Amino acid sequence: MTAYTLGYRYLLKRNLSMAGKLAIKPILLVHGGAGGISDTLAPRKVDGMKQALRVAVKHLLVTKDISKSSALDAVEAAVRIMECDESFNAGYGSCLNIAGKVEVEASIMDGSELRAGCVALLHDIIHPVSVARCIMHKTRHVFLAGEAAQKFAFNQGYEQLAENSLVTESAQMTWQKHQERHVRCSDMAFTRSEIDVGSIKKDPPEGSGTVGAVAIDIEGNIAAATSTGGITGKMLGRIGDSSLLGCGTYADNLVGGVSATGHGETIMRFNLAQKIMAKIHYECKTAQAATEEACKEMTKRLLGTGGAITIGSNGQLGVYWTTRRMAWAYVKNGEICYGVDHDKTFKEPL
Question: Which residue is catalytic, options 174, 210, 249, 305?
Answer without folding.
Answer: 210
